[in-house]
Structures are given as C-alpha cells and as structure tokens.
Write a structure and sequence with these properties.
Blueprint lengths: L7 H16 L8 H16 L5 E4 L8 E3 L5 E5 L2 H11 L6 H9 L9
C-alpha cells in the first residue's frame, strides 16, 4: 500500500470545501426539468441502434469509431463529450435528440483524436 500523501486533516478540509461549494449560491445548478430532459436524451440514444454509443476509455484510439460484436458502432472518447453535455446543461440548452443525431452526422460534437 502506498503512503497517504494527503493525510486526514487535509482530506477533511477538502471535504469541507466540497460541502461549501455544493451549497454555494455561486455553484451553477441545473433544474430537475433540464436534468430530466438530458436523461431522456440518454435513454433515446441508448435505445437507438442506428446511433453510435459514446464510450469514455483511456486509450490511443480516441476519436475513432469501432464496430462492436453486436454490430453497434462505438465512438471512443475522453472527457470532452461529457464536458460538452455539461456545458449545454449549464447553459440551459435543451437540444432535441434529432438535433444531436444531425450534429453527430456532421461531425460537430467534440471527440478529440489521439
């Protein structure tokens, strides 16, 4: 087991900061309506076999599209895609599922290359 380079006292202060930020009026919060919207997008996406699944994986294959043994396409990515979604949530954007499909087809959603 590696040495604990942070220690209990610092870890406790980090937890305190986390609680302060969570409860801060400066912390941007999404409405439940917006969260429900994006969860609906995820469910539609998951169920639509014609659209590639986006998989976050630490690999040198980032940005590439692969075909899973089930026949479904998979796009390998890093955190960029989830950050794009988070940005849209913080901006209050309710992008429709069909719009996302179009953005994917036009390569307008950020997926960094290797």
């Amino acid at each position: 087991m590696k040495d604990d380079l942070v220690g209990y006292e610092i870890r406790k202060k980090i937890a305190e900061l986390g609680k302060l930020w969570f409860n801060s009026e400066k912390n941007p919060k999404a409405t439940s309506d917006l969260i429900d919207h994006w969860e609906g997008i995820v469910i539609q996406w998951k169920n639509d076999q014609t659209v590639p699944l986006v998989v976050r994986k630490q690999t040198d294959m980032r940005g590439s599209e692969r075909t899973h043994r089930t026949g479904r396409k998979i796009i390998i990515t890093d955190n960029s895609f989830s950050q794009w979604i988070y940005f849209n949530i913080l901006e209050g954007n309710k992008i429709k599922y069909d719009e996302i499909k179009t953005l994917l087809e036009k390569d307008q959603i950020p997926f960094p290359l290797q």
